[in-house]
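user: can you give me the structure for this one chain? tokens are fine.
assistant: on it. calling the predictor now.
[tool input]
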Amino acid sequence: MFLPHMNHLTLEQTFFSQVLPKTVRLYDDMMYELTSQARGLSSQNLEIQTTIRNILQTMVQLLGALTGCVQHVCATQESIILENIHSLPSSVLHVIKSTFVHCKNSESVYSGRLHLVSDLLQALFKEAYSLQKQLMELLDMVCIDPLIDENDDILNMVVVIHSLLDICSVISSMDHAFHANTWKFIIKQSLKHQSVIKSQLKHKDIITSLCEDILFSFRSCLQLAEQMTQSDAQDNTDCKLFQKTLKLCRFFANSLLHYTKEFLPFLSDSCCTLHQLYLQVHSKFPPSLYAAGISKAQQEEIAGAFLVTLDPLVSQLLKFQPFVEVVLDSELELPCELQFPQCLLLVVIMDELPSQPEDVQTLWCTETQVSEATTRVSLLKAIFSSFEQCSGELSLPVHLQEVKSKGQTEVAVTLYQHVCVHLCTFIASLHPSLFPELDTALLNAVLSANMITSLLAMDAWCFLARYGTAELCAHHVAIVAHLIKSCPGECHQLTSLSVLLRRLFFFMTPPQQVEFIQKFSPKEAENLLLWQYISFQALPAELRKQTALEVSRSGTAQCRKWLSSSRTLGELESLNTVLSALLAVCNSASEALDMGQQTAVKEVGSQLWALLNIKLVTGQPYVQQTLCLLLPLLGFFIQTLDPQLISQVITLQTSLLKSEPPDHVRLAVLDFLSSLGKLFIPQAIQDKILPHLSSVFALLLADRNWLLEQHSLEAFTQFAEGTNHEEIVPQCLSSEETKKKVVSFLEKTGFVEETAAARVERVKQEKGTFWEPFAKVTVEEAKKSALQPSAKRARHELPLEEEYRSALQAATAALEAIELLLQKSPPPDWLLTKMETLQERIDKLKHHVF
């Protein structure tokens, strides 16, 4: 009533600064009185009921008076200088927040007696709602001159924005539209006054709150979608609520996108939050193993309305070095559910980089020491490392939707296909200055102990060989060949390099293959190490015949040399290399060998076999390797082998299996047995061979190792289908259990049915068990573990879970202590305020539990 009679330019000095602080104190006192009296509220106690209702009515009137003040300022001033009314926004925002907090906590404050005051609480909320709307209109009229260093005005506006941010955290679960409008206003004012307040704003708080609200609304959206999927009947209310929540998700995401674009230079300490937002969202969305169960239509709707905004966010952050350092941190350790999203993020980044300048590509693709404790790995290294951690997603496998070529519909591809295709596309567009980084990353990945990672690197390398020049391919083949020759002995790195050499050799041009043969001539014994790994099918017909003969002649000569020497065990390693090279010729270029050369190979094989005995084989690993090479070599010539030699081989196998040899020896025995299927054994020697043969099969079919059991069944089936000696087949089935096993294998029955949901759950448990660093399995523990794969594994608890439990128990104990104190004596004046602050912190924490 007094305002119209006052000079609007002196309102702050004459009225607001004098009255509003007292108004705030009065309102706080009423709020305290209200909360204190609420404990005694009941329908029988009319005195307290009247007191509480009178307080609420007074508060409604007070809010109305404040609304009148705000309206008067709006009506009398076209442009507002904040310094002239600075007490008004701060006081109003304090009162608004206090009101919303009380309304939010009303169920706990009034307990089961809320109905006695619900009408006035509703009026109070509406009045506070109107007051905030009016205040936002006023603040929209505020003008801050960017040329004048008005520190007070700048600080006042910053305080206003952060006060509205606090209100957002209170009303987020109360009124979605009001919550969104408040955020819209915060973003608008931040951008309007960007030039003067950008250095003063607490950007981390704004980004964190916005990300929390995105995750909270996204979780609500998924919960509604899941309810709709599980419910047979389509509830129109649920559908509308789902659509409304999805729009809220999109609004928040677009707000984040806009804010990030404008204030990017100030967001270095928010990069971790933005990174986590991307990972958290994708961890809860199909095809993640940890995703909610929602329909295909809802997936497409959410992806089209909300997820599409996350990729532009990544694009904005590509040039921002702090974001690069967060994503590529060498010490980054993610829980199981975030490893797959990290892999997807890296693929998105990889797709974006070709359109970026060279300096941005270099930023992502080079390894750098950020500090003494932190290293930024290259994007390529991170891709392989992240891919390796997605064991569950690869083994299931999960499928992603992808368009193979423009204009075509999307098709489902596995994670392996998805990463491989995008990696090869990235390699094709990589800047030449980054080729050394590519070479390093590919070689390190090929040498990885993880088989699937090594395979991915080989596929990418083969693409590079085909996409690049012929000279580059030849250069790479030569490097791999030298690496193989420099390996000290059998190891997983040698295995991977040998597979890579075999594959790359197919991409060489004939002239380059000739150069390779000249450089690594098979006539030299030291080069047979390489030729054991090369498929002769990669060579043109004439060159294949010539090279196969050279390897065969050189190999048989080396075998004869060993046979005529002192035959020491120390020389067996080189002999095994020779036998392996001869076996490679037989497997991929047998047609190139004339009868004389075939006879020569068969003769040295027979002579070497004659030197073997059970004691040597069981006691010497190198001799076991020799046996494993001789068995398939002799099996290749099975139709022309001396029956007496076949008898000796099977007799030794019988004795050997009884001594429980290593798995690779038993697998070699199986390969030889499967080659006997089409062999006709002469009548004169059947009594010596067939009983031992049935005994060998019986021993192998009874093996409990699941891998050997599978190979045994396959070898026995192949033998039984091809043999002319049908009478031996029943003799191999030594027990009822073995008979049932074979029948189930032939009829493809006996499998345990597993639902899709059960399979996903099992894969998640296996991933939790095997993933480093949460699952540490020592060599000794691995040796003690059963060879049979476990159908189910216990879920592994995260190391921090115990700390969570401990912290929660401490918090519960503290609250119980306060409850006891309240029973003994009246609470101090400050307790309620502190408890409300605590409640707000709990509400914020709830957003993180997602």
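assistant: here you go. The first strand starts at residue 368 and ends at 369. The longest helix spans residues 46-76.
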